[in-house]
Amino acid sequence: MRVILLGTAAGGGFPQWNCACALCVSDAPPRTQDCVAVSADGEGWYLLNVSPDIRAQLLATPPLRAGPGPREIPLRGVLLTDAELDHSLGLLLLREAGGLPVWAPDAVLGALSEHFPARSIIDGYGGWDWLPSSRVAIDGLRVSMLPVSDKRPKYARSSTEDGPWVVAYRIEDVVTGGVFVYAPCLKSWPDGFDDFTRDAGLVLLDGTFYAPDEMSGATAAEIGDGAQLAMGHLPITGSLAKLRPGPRWAYTHLNNTNPVIDPASPEHAAVLDGGASLPLDGTEFKL
């Protein structure tokens, strides 16, 4: 199984266009918004979330570019962990695909129909299938999900849909036995997560914030007290101590306020010392 990190930043990417904080004006490596591609055979690829940066991400990744036929593409489907805009807006940019299956939690499928009408827009281009992520069917890969949060996006606050609103995926190569866990949005370290990640070769974790009070600092955007907590992301300081030997642990979905973005920061060093990595866009793993 091949896993390529197309983007590793939280919503807005890094640097953010509307921010001139110390990090955003630094020389830290840029990152596009979180998105992953996975394949059992290196020919057919599935996207885990679809960021607004998807066009640039696909063109920057040779295995995902069109060909060999003039209109052939290697994309075979999409799995959404949630309904947040930075994970689903890219669907609109894939409208020329000629149709793909999209798997997502039931609440997410409802939100994309009723509150952010991506489904009706994309369906106008034909060939799309919208399927519950409890029944993912992919040749060569076995997929299971774990509900991790009921945090709904702002545009769907009035939704009557029951959760879960956010899931993690466990993807197993049925030939090699390699296991990859994708959990870019964790409100907490949920019940069952240790078992869910057991025997995994790679676990990609929510690295949105380093500390629980990160956005209250003078260099952060002034968005109001309590806003970071309401975003529903377990900080790295809350997950790093839970890592155990075995899997390769890595953090993704890094917010522009997160000091680990700077490779020279003590926080970056603390993550490495804690047994995890902070891979950049374009990093590939083989399991």
Strands of the widest sheet, in order across it, are: 6-5-4-3-2-1-13
Shape, please? globular
Q: Topology as H/E string?
A: EEEHEHHEHHEEEEHEHHEHEE
Tally of separate helices:
9
Termini Cα gap: 5 Å
Percentage of residues in strands: 15-25%
Quote the average pLDDT.
93
Give the beta-strand count: 13
Described by strand count, sense and barrel closure, the largest sheet is: 7 strands, mixed
Global structural class: alpha/beta
Q: What descriptors fit this protein?
A:
287 residues; alpha/beta; 7-stranded mixed β-sheet; 6-stranded mixed β-sheet; globular
How would you portray this structure in words?
The chain has helices spanning 54-59, 85-88, 90-93, 106-114, 118-123, 193-196, 227-230, 236-239, 266-273; strands spanning 2-7, 35-39, 45-48, 75-79, 101-104, 129-132, 141-149, 166-173, 179-183, 202-206, 248-252, 276-277, 284-286. By secondary structure, the chain is an alpha/beta fold. It has a 7-stranded mixed beta sheet with strand order 6-5-4-3-2-1-13. Mean pLDDT is 93; it is low at 218-225.
